[in-house]
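Try this one yourself first.
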């Protein structure tokens, strides 16, 4: 695989352009072209420069090879990478803007039992430019340009564990928030992690105050370890401490994702335990009904169970919401589309 031009920040691109003997202003032309989601071969620059770039860099690091559209307007994409790997992403339309969910790795090695992304393990990390290109491609697809973005919000909740690919994920955050690029505000970006504690501290000190989201899904370390192997390494107490530090450094309220799994984590006792853990903390709990993955035997909950659990949390003084499931009819859950594709299923 050649290198990925979208990995570079604007100043790195300027240095590259100067180093090949071109005028500095060409960097802006190239950068704007890439930000508009163009292939290198489509950018209006002198042929000699284009050839030089194409010698070393992938023309199109990411290509949409399949699009599924849900009845609720959600779009799910299967992207192919330059080396033939596939990843997936989701575009969701809300009243306040459009959110894109991006992948940070091909596969995942965290092994969460409810998640389809981890079924085949980790294949490789995505580069920052491959993460960014998911946004650039989809933004262009929906008519976004340098003035008006079609993608206004980003969630790092696709395949992969963003903090297991820290360097590339952080470079992506820098580039996607850069004023000369898409310039998406850190406030409009949510990073979801299964709880890699040292990397939470690193992110807190990184200077890009994105919304931190923790996949909690349980109230005790033992219970958590049943579905999330990472729980054996980092306990809930350590995670909460790291979240406290994140709040101190960024002033941002943190969020807990809690996927409701029947018979596993949503009895009255779990509600009490969750309230005891989180009451008074500057946080919000996002409940999601488990999106059943057919390779796993975990079962989701009824609406009634979900609202009952939500009611208990609210009564206990927690700020909580039940997330509307989107794109259920198009394999909306993490990794389901890619898994089906790799198995040769008709999707
Ligand atoms: N690795 C990161 C981000 C990817 S998953 C993380 O663990 O947070 C994004 C969110 O979807 C996480 O909260 C994850 O636990 C949840 N998730 C994964 N598979 C799911 C499923 N089948 N149903 C409901 N939520 C799921």
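Now uncover the answer:
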């Amino acid at each position: 695989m050649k290198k990925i031009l979208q990995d570079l920040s604007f100043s790195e691109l300027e240095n590259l352009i100067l180093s090949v003997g071109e005028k500095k202003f060409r960097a802006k032309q190239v950068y704007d072209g890439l930000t508009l989601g163009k292939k290198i071969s489509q950018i209006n620059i002198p042929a000699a420069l284009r050839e030089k770039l194409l010698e070393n860099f992938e023309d199109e690091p990411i290509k949409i090879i399949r699009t599924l559209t849900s009845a609720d307007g959600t779009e799910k994409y299967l992207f192919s990478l330059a080396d033939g790997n596939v990843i997936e992403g989701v575009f969701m339309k809300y009243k306040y803007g459009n959110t894109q969910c991006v992948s940070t790795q091909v596969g995942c090695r965290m092994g969460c039992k409810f998640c389809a992304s981890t079924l085949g393990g980790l294949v490789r990390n995505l580069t920052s430019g491959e993460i960014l290109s998911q946004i650039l491609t989809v933004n262009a697809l929906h008519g976004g340009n340098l003035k008006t973005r079609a993608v206004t919000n980003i969630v790092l909740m696709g395949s992969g564990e963003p903090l297991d690919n820290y360097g590339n994920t952080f470079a992506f955050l820098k580039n996607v928030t850069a004023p000369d690029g898409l310039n998406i505000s850190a406030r409009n970006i949510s990073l979801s992690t299964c709880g890699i504690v040292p990397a939470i501290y690193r992110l807190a000190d990184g200077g890009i105050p994105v919304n931190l989201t923790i996949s909690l899904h349980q109230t005790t370390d033992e219970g958590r370890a049943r579905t999330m192997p990472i729980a054996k390494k980092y306990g809930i107490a350590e995670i909460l401490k790291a979240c406290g530090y994140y709040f101190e450094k960024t002033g941002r309220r943190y969020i807990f994702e809690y996927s409701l799994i029947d018979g596993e984590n949503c009895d009255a006792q779990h509600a009490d335990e969750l309230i005891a853990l989180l009451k008074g903390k500057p946080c919000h709990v996002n409940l999601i009904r488990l999106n059943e993955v057919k390779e796993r035997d975990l079962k989701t909950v009824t609406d009634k169970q979900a609202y009952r659990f939500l009611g208990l949390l609210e009564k206990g003084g927690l700020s909580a919401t039940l997330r509307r499931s989107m794109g259920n009819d198009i394999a909306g859950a993490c990794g389901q589309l890619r898994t089906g594709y790799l198995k040769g299923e008709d999707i």
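Discussion: The CA atoms of residues 6 and 129 lie 4 Å apart. The chain has a mean pLDDT of 94.
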